[in-house]
Amino acid sequence: MDFLMIQCIRNIVALPSEEEGKLRKHLRYISIPKGSYYLSAGQVPRRFGFIRQGLCRYLYIDHKGTEYTKNFVPEGHFVNSYSAMKAGAPSHMYIEALEDCMIEDISYTDWEAIRSGHPCWNQLLVIMLEKAFAVKEKRERELLLLEAGERYREFLREFPGLIHRVRQHQIASYLGISPVSLSRIRHQSDPE
């Protein structure tokens, strides 16, 4: 079985075959059943992954048990709590499998060793961090400036088909509204 993470990386940077071999040696497949966590709050992340199959979400849970969905991460994307991993600190967020997931996974220690060996890895890291920053900035702008209906329409554009894979209360949490408000917006917006 080939690693989709490697194919994704090849689409971003020129990956020398020797560097690909180093990465391949440290990758492993792990299964995360639906409803389980790839990472829990309070856990120091020591690994990161690439979703080969399935869907995850980043979320926070407050002291009352209220969930706040930060983002959805479908197949073909990296998944981690990068700032906590980099700092060696406990994560504040959870990474939950919303579907049965197959993840291509590598330890942060192995990644750091590989990364120090060739400039292609730093080029990849810069591109990925720039993309993550742009997503974060866009998300913040939407939450601060857009009305709930506009955020819903943006969600539909950004995540086509996800509405059929995610529970309505999770979408409402992502949009920063109540499930009742989402139901009202959907009734007004959906042509069905």
Key terms:
single chain; 192 residues; alpha+beta; four-stranded antiparallel sheet; 47% helix; globular
Low-pLDDT windows of residues:
none
Question: If you average the pLDDT, what whole number results?
Answer: 94
DSSP summary, beta strand count: 8
Strand order of the largest sheet: 1-8-3-6
Individual helix count: 8
Strand proportion, as a percent range, falls in: 15-25%
Give the fraction of residues assigned to helices.
Answer: 40-55%
**Which value, in Å, is the CA radius of gyration?**
18 Å
Characterize the overall form. globular
Q: How are helices and strands ordered from N to C?
A: HHEEEEEEHEEHHHHH
Q: How far from one another are the termini?
A: 41 Å
Structural class: alpha+beta
Q: State the major sheet.
A: 4 strands, antiparallel
Task: Summarize, please.
With 192 residues, the protein is α+β, with helices and mostly antiparallel strands. A hairpin with a 5-residue loop joins strand 4 and strand 5 (67-74).
